[in-house]
User: Fold this.
Amino acid sequence: MDARIVVVGAGPAGLCLATALAERGFQVDVVDRQSAETLATPPFDGREVALTQTSIQLLQSLGIWRRIAEADKAPIARARIMDDAAAGFVADSASVARDRLGVLVSNHVIRAAAWEAASTHANIRFHGDVSVERLETGPVSAAVGLSDGSRLQARLVVAADGRFSALRRMRGIATSTHDFGKTMLLVRAHHARSNDRTAWEWFGRGQMRALLPLGDRLSSLVLTVDAAEAQHWRELSPEQLGAELALRYEGRLGAVTPESTLHAYPLVATWAHRFAATRFALVGDAAIGMHPVTAHGFNLGLAGVRHLAGAVAEGAVRHGDPGHARALAQYQRRLRTSGALIFAGTQALAHLYTDDRRRALPLRRALLQAGSRIAPLRQALAAHVTADLPLRESPLRHVWGALRALRPQPRTVGRTRGFQDSSLTG
Ligand SMILES: Cc1cc2nc3c(=O)[nH]c(=O)nc-3n(C[C@H](O)[C@H](O)[C@H](O)COP(=O)(O)OP(=O)(O)OC[C@H]3O[C@@H](n4cnc5c(N)ncnc54)[C@H](O)[C@@H]3O)c2cc1C
Assistant:
């Protein structure tokens, strides 16, 4: 059996998938437009990723977790969710029967560790500094044509090329896209007062603030603002930035000194209508690109890695074909099942807390007040900050269902439900 698989995109999802497939004995070609040198030492990009226990276990099994230094793993002890009128509540790790709510690791650190694991694996070949110009899929095999003129043929091509995936478009897969019209700003900063290892999510009129604790007096500070305001923040000197942040956090942190540059991300959520087609699959942000408010994007990407690697292995055993249509259909079903609820809940929360029209405000207040009194709701709301999901699916479904019902009508709509089931013949 020819068990070659091409993975396009050496981001965290693509590298984790390549390693998971290589560990199962498949020969994997990984393609990225970045060079091996850049991928080995990726620059700081502002993102601090809150990892769930399930994600950590997968990273452990792939030999990635042990490549991350202990000093780069920041535990979250508590989560505080509040609004401008100081309504809100605190959830701690005891309330979810764990020793911590989650672990924060910088995205560039995850990328470097995932690269180290993949680039040293005997079953993985890397093609850097090239992009994919052509995609061919047929009943027996698929191939990609690269910008250096070479062509890679395989039983399966996987697109892990991010939320604006060029391969998804080449394959003709429609995607629901919602542009929130907001920008998320992130900066690492030292501050005079302790953060008490508490993650904050702080909802206010016209803005969302968050704090991710990286050390006692070191945090990632996160602001969600509109595009014009983002431009203003980008133009500040480090001193001005520190002074504005201290004001924006209303003195709760004391004096603030930026440790990193400011990073800006336009907030756009995407959901591909199909996660698989003939000899082709999508994984990571290429399949589902989440709003970061619930900190679940990469966690869901890893769930996709687990589902796809499992389905491909099953395809090889049962049908002698890692890209068999039934295996890909199974992957699509599993990812839809694990992704639909969390994506819809995230969209609902993001709308509720970025909508400043009068009717949204009492709903927000009511939700926070209810959270301070009702333990399961408090846990569900804390879970969206900490990326850990302590609840069984059924109560979580009720909470997300309620959030969907409360959701104000968006200005432009990205469909989040009722995606067509597609056959894998297209
Ligand atoms: C501000 C912010 C905070 C976040 N916080 C969290 C969090 O707390 N928890 C969490 O779980 N998730 C979080 N996320 C989400 C998480 O960062 C993403 O889900 C994850 O990085 C996506 O990884 P990926 O490999 O799918 O895509 P990417 O990281 O986008 O990688 C795509 C790769 O494909 C390559 N590529 C693209 N096009 C081509 C092409 N045509 N040819 C060849 N190569 C190509 C690129 O060079 C890149 O290496 C956050 C996201 C943001 C924006």
Q: What stands out?
A: The longest helix spans residues 325-354. The pocket of flavin-adenine dinucleotide is lined by residues 8-14, 31-34, 47, 49-50, 107, 131-132, 160-162, 166, 184, 186, 265, 284-285, 292, 295-299, 301, 387 (CB under 6 Å).
